[in-house]
Amino acid sequence: MKNTLTRITFLTCLFFILFSSCREKAPQNIRIGVLDGPSSISFIQLYDNPQKIGDKKIEFVIKSDPQQIQALMMKNELDFAVLPTVMAANLYNKDVKYKAVAFPVWGTLYIVTNNQNIQSLTQLHNNTIAVFGQGATPDILLQRYIDEKKLRNVQIDYTYTGNNELAGALLSGKVQIAVISEPQVSNLIIKNPEIRVLSKLDCEEYIFNTDIDIFAQTAFLVNTSFADDNNDIVEEVCELYSASCNFINNEPDMAAALLVKHKIISDTETAKKSLPLCNIRYVGAFAVEKEVMRYLNIFYEFAPESIGGKLPNRNFIYQPE
């Protein structure tokens, strides 16, 4: 009996040693959370040519709603993530441990209409504008825009919660004026040429009459603990991502073909029209820290709760070694 127990104990220990050894040798993927839209477009070269860094594969987790990406971040299930910069600052101020590595998307929001009687911004008085995401970036920038342009008696419709849903409502005529993000703007215009852009929803007018672009709409984030242990991997991922963004701008025809191939955009014509409006431009966070803080200050002054009640401190910005 004693020998039998000894043998069972030995085999059990051996099993756990072997199992632990296998687990240690199994490579873990590098997980990047990405949103549909311009963010997914910016990664197209990496989608088409999957990469490995050492023995780790890059794995994309694609979601349609930033709240879904946020939930994964809060559970510490992503190594990198792409989120609206405002939401990223909010999470940072709530001690969700991610830092901004870069800013790849610089303004993709447009006020569009299907109403042929509206030919200029002055005709937006006494109208309703639909926007997705109450309290989110499009909503707050629209409210600022209404104030800056002194538009009178403008109502904001929050019926539609997502960009795709709102674009569908505009196409079907359920709404007449809306704030839409690329690539849906180009898609709408292709489907119905009577739909047109009235104005880009932008931030340049808030920069004391300079032409500095501070509309750092989207942030590329890294998990702080992952970065602490894997500086070399962070650098390689950033190089690959930067190359993908450059590819979109330098080879738009090839990029458009890949967007269709991977079913991100339905046809080449729409893809070609959409790419310039997506304003994809990879910039390291450390290089635009002042511009990003000016951008976030717009939200702090107008709706401080949107960024967690305060401007993030300098540790929000990842500093490469």
- Percent in strands: 15-25%
Q: Could you estimate the helical fraction of the residues in percent?
A: 40-55%
- The helix tally amounts to 13
Q: Kindly report the spatial arrangement of strands forming the biggest sheet.
A: 2-3-1-4-11-5-12
Q: Total strand count, please?
A: 12
Unreliable spans are: 8-26
Global Rg: 23 Å
Tell me the domain tally.
2
Order of helices and strands: HEHHEEHEHEEEHEHEHEEHHHHEH
Q: Major beta sheet, specifics?
A: 7 strands, mixed
**CATH architectural designation of the largest domain:** 3-Layer(aba) Sandwich
Cα-to-Cα separation, first versus last residue: 60 Å
- CATH fold descriptor of the largest domain: D-Maltodextrin-Binding Protein, domain 2
Structural class: alpha/beta
Tell me the overall shape: globular
Question: What's the CATH C level of the largest domain?
Answer: Alpha Beta
Give me the CATH superfamily of the largest domain. Periplasmic binding protein-like II
Task: Summarize model confidence as the mean pLDDT.
Answer: 89
